[in-house]
Specification:
mainly alpha
Amino acid sequence: MKFFERAVLAVGFATLLLLLIKLNPSVVAHDIATVGWGFLLILPFPILDNTFNAFAWRFAFSRQEAKGLPFLPLFKGRVAGDGVNYLTPSGTIAGEFIRPGILGDIRSPEVKNASVVVAKLTQSLSQALFILVGLFFVIDGPLHFLNGRSRHLATGWALLVGTVIMGSIAFLAMKPGSGGRPWQAQGRFGGLRLTIRRYLLDHPVRFLLSILFFGFGYLWGAAEVLLITHFMGLSLPLPTALAVEVLSNIVDSLMFMVPAKVGTQEAGKTAIFYWLGYPASAGLAFGLIRHLRELVWAGAGFLIYAVNRSALAAASSKAPQRALSELLREPL
């Protein structure tokens, strides 16, 4: 582990410890204990979220390639990739290399890799749109505490992310030059880029449906907020639950380099609940409960990856993996 990664983890753990000391651990423990058997309902809640995401990935394939594509490998690929992204300091990139291999040899490596890149774009754009639209819905309600500058910063961040993603999509939709540079037709991932370009030009409706289904997944996060706070004994109106999820996505997008959201999950939720007029200790308890649920699912994803590791090595050739790596990391 690099020095920066160690430092980030150390700061995260220190932040979590400081929050526990400052916010009366007995009160936080009581809020968590209040959930009781409700955790048995909270734990499987992301099944629908991952189902939405699996369908969104399916729409990232062309209509011809999606025909006959089994759903279970798509679901497992989403869970495994998200688990690797969650537990490794890779900036949500490492898990993308896992997803194609989970599909096995039912599609060509080029087609699988192209679908992963498209799904990464549509998911990122969906998150930016969720934040932007969510802010407009709740900014004059639960987020009335934000002053003009804070509102402009939050909206500007969502617009910036959306602009970068749209620029990336426009770049991929352009016809590549005929040269041999990595991003050109005869380059290292020229064939992959041409596959993505054909998809973008021939299947704009599928592209929009992929964005939409990822959006359903983000909205489902607000339903989880309602469920957790219900078992904690808090009564949050729907706009407030939406505000919690919108602000949580802003924090997650800003702190994407922190592995397993150590400290950021708890600190973010503590601040959000305090800003919304709820006890900070309740925000910390909520953050710990969601963190535990996320760790369980991340562990399940890592287990899927470990079980399929030998199959991944056999199914994925090194060249397509390098091409996928270049395309995901290449500054556009």
